[in-house]
Amino acid sequence: MDKPIMAKATAVWLVDNTTLTFKQVADFCGLHELEVQGIADGDVAAGVKGFDPIANNQLTQEEIDKAEASPLHKLKLKFNAAAVGEQKRRGPRYTPLSKRQDRPNSILWLVKFHPELTDGQIAKLVGTTKPTIQSIRNREHWNIANMQPIDPVALGLCKQSELDAAVQKAAAKKAAEGEAMSDDERRKLLSTEQSLEMDAEPRIPTAISGLETFSLSDDEEEEKEDPLVDADSFFNLPDSKDDEDEQP
Description:
The protein is mostly helical. It folds into two domains: 7-82, no CATH class; 91-197, no CATH class. The chain has helices at 7-17, 22-29, 33-41, 61-69, 103-113, 119-126, 130-137, 152-155, 160-177, 183-188, 192-197, 217-225, 231-235, 240-246.
């Protein structure tokens, strides 16, 4: 249900000028019932001036009278002919000024670690334009030398769930087209929840990569069969006691 403009100020006016229940006011203004009770007690919205919904063409007196007569009646926002046909604006996501300087870094991160995402998906995630994305893909951006890839989720430019949804959509598209993907690409297409639930795979250090089938078992058996030879026995040196016995 649509909510009135200046909802809290409207709630202040309704509490002060009507006998509506807290629940009726809360439902109409999109507030919690306890918050409306706090307004009535003076603990909430202290100093807020009431906003008359009748004078501002949001409610009719007849609708308020019906609600006062029946506590179960829910207030309905007055029909505004001027608002007919208004739709949510379609276009890039709005990015606050404080975060706009970080947007190129997030685009670089998405281009580098999720090349399967289309320009349209990236534009929706971080609120940018396709020419900007193309300039970063082609490394033609004016500040490309000073840019560092940073996760847009860490920057607060999008939610992790939104990024995962875009990645999964890209995975489904690639699967439908039958394109072969490398192991690195498959790992990138996993959502955060899936990657965290996977068992850690033991990896062989790169220094000994390629020696997986090498075994020391034969050498160990040979060491058991051929014990180390003592240096004295190797040269067959006579024992010193034997030399003393042979002397006259």
